[in-house]
Specification:
- Strands 2-4-3 form a three-stranded antiparallel beta sheet. A three-stranded antiparallel beta sheet has the order 5-7-6.
- The N and C termini lie far apart (about 135 Å).
- The protein has 26 helices and 15 strands.
- It folds into three domains: about 375 residues, no CATH class; about 40 residues, no CATH class; about 50 residues, no CATH class.
- Helix 15 crosses helix 17 and helix 22 packs across helix 23.
- The protein is mostly helical and about 525 residues long.
Length: about 525
């Protein structure tokens, strides 16, 4: 470790600045339109956590109260700060497994909100993650790397607060994390700093670390068979959405762009022309390294631009996001843009695990859990049926399957209609009729969109009643061939092994003989 002086190596930059003169100019190559193709798997990654951040913000503010409860009016006043997307009371009532609404003392005018025991237990596990030595060390290393990437080795606390969710910072990181690493960073006063105010302060780098000033791509290249030394080209991993087609001119430029020397994000390359290929490659390396510092490798686009504005490379970040969709994916879910690093996700799941992400996944599972008759039922997130409620079979039992299949892709978790089979039953039918309707549905799967189970069972009985007439005319239904011998065999057992026709003839003969004997007795008398 070397004390605060940041070494800026520009020798190899000037050496390789005029290489690849045959490369297509950046402006000419990117003049062609690069299509934007949606990636359903990465969209699902963004959609899965759409309500998690505001929910945890409300959880933290309730937990900070001495009474562990809060009136709904306070949450309404801080709606924008808590990032609640809808009316706070509607948002809270949407998650009964997280929040409990009550009237204090039974006479309160305004409802109060408290946390359920399940979410309190999960919060205790979350605090254990924040307090673990391994997580603190990893978080301190990532903060140090972010400070070394910044232009003057300082970052305002307001920007860190904006990136608190993405970096995985605890709520009181200034009091708990910063003092434990005095040789890494410290809080200093910034412009307009006043005593007792942390919003105008800055987090300053104390020591430069040569060990940590190595990017993720450089580490992978060093472990490769060819080895790596500064100034060598490193190809960025690229993945494209299904159906993406690149113009030949752009593809040629990208191939040549990958062969340019790799410029470390920890080097100051601000002197390069903003529209040059070398500058674009350095900006891509900076953004790639910053994205790897976030726990979920995704961040809102406005946060990226805000950080880029502070670093003086906002316009370069814009061009990188626009012209390199194979490295960074822009998801447009919910009216805002989210930047996702493609290479770290596979089929909608993060390849590398993180203890904090494991806790967040448990929060998502608890959010999608509702209680019915004191039984916990998990509803998959992002489903239309959770938003619209239970849907009856006679209205759109088949249409719901078509909608789910149209929205899901090969890389998205597909929830079948079997998950909602219990919720879609017709509540107006009693238990016996419902079982009988289900049995008729499975035994005679005829095509009838919109029919109820009762109608299908009625058709089955009517069809079984006409079997005898159809048999005499030779129009015996093939679908019920296997059922007729079964009924005949059962009736043989009842009548002592005789067939149905034989038993009926014997019964008629015995009846006629009885009538004749009775008539003869009457005439004799």
């Amino acid at each position: 470790m070397k004390f605060v002086s940041r070494s800026v190596s520009k020798s190899y930059l000037s050496t390789h600045h005029h290489r690849n003169t045959n490369c297509i100019p950046f402006v000419d190559a990117t003049a062609a339109t690069i299509p934007c193709v949606r990636d359903r798997g990465l969209d699902h990654v963004v959609e899965r956590e759409k309500n998690l951040n505001p929910l945890l913000n409300i959880k933290n503010i309730i937990k900070s109260e001495p009474s562990k409860s809060l009136p709904i009016s306070i949450i309404t006043q801080q709606k924008d700060f808590l990032k609640v997307p809808t009316r706070p009371i509607e948002f809270i009532r949407k998650f009964p497994s997280i929040f409990q609404e009550f009237l204090p003392g039974g006479i309160g005018i305004q409802p109060h909100i408290k946390l359920t025991p399940e979410v309190l237990n999960l919060d205790a596990e979350e605090q254990l993650v924040y307090q673990s030595d391994s997580y603190k060390q990893d978080l301190a290393d990532r903060l140090l790397k972010l400070l070394m990437i910044s232009r003057i080795n300082k970052i305002p606390l307001r920007i860190l607060d904006m990136l608190k969710w993405d970096l995985g910072l605890p709520q009181d990181y200034i009091k708990t994390l910063v003092p434990e690493f005095p040789d890494y960073f410290r809080v200093v006063s910034g412009e307009g700093f006043s005593s007792g105010s942390e919003d105008t302060g800055e987090l300053e780098l104390v020591c430069w670390s040569n060990e940590l000033s190595v990017s993720v791509l450089e580490k992978k290249a060093t472990k490769g068979e060819m080895g790596y030394s500064k100034g060598m080209p490193i190809a960025f991993p690229m993945k494209f959405s299904r159906g993406f087609e690149m113009d030949k001119k752009v593809k040629k430029w990208v191939d040549e762009w990958q062969k340019l020397p790799y410029i470390s994000p920890y080097e100051n390359a601000g002197h390069l022309s903003p529209k040059s290929d070398e500058s674009d490659r350095w900006a891509a390396a900076v953004l790639h390294e910053i994205m790897n510092l976030f726990v979920a490798r995704k961040v809102e686009r406005e946060n990226v631009f805000c950080l880029g504005d502070y670093m003086g490379i906002r316009s370069r970040f814009k061009r990188v996001l626009l012209h390199h969709p194979g490295i960074f994916y822009l998801s447009s879910k919910f009216g805002s843009y989210t930047v996702v690093l493609r290479e770290v996700y596979k089929r909608g799941l993060l390849i590398e695990s993180n203890p904090l992400l494991g806790i967040r996944s448990q929060y998502i599972h608890l959010m999608n859990t509702v209680k019915e008759n004191n039984k916990a039922i998990t509803v998959p997130s992002g489903s239309k049926q959770k938003e619209k409620g239970a849907i009856k079979d006679d209205e759109c039992h088949d249409d719901s399957a078509d909608n789910n299949s149209a929205e899901s892709g090969s890389e998205v978790e597909d929830f079948s209609d079997d998950d909602y089979e219990d919720n879609d039953e017709d509540e107006d039918e009693d238990g016996a009729d419902r079982k009988q309707g289900q049995r008729g549905f499975h035994r005679n799967p005829v095509d009838g969109r919109g029919r109820t189970s009762r109608q299908k069972d009625l058709d089955l009985k009517r069809h079984a009643g006409n079997v005898q007439g159809e048999r005499t005319t030779g129009k015996y239904d093939r679908k019920t061939v296997h059922r007729r011998p079964l009924k005949a065999s059962r009736r043989k057992e009842v009548h002592g092994g005789h067939s149905l026709r034989q038993s009926s003839k014997e019964w008629s003969k015995s009846t006629q003989s009885k009538r004749r004997s009775l008539w003869s007795k009457e005439t004799s008398t």
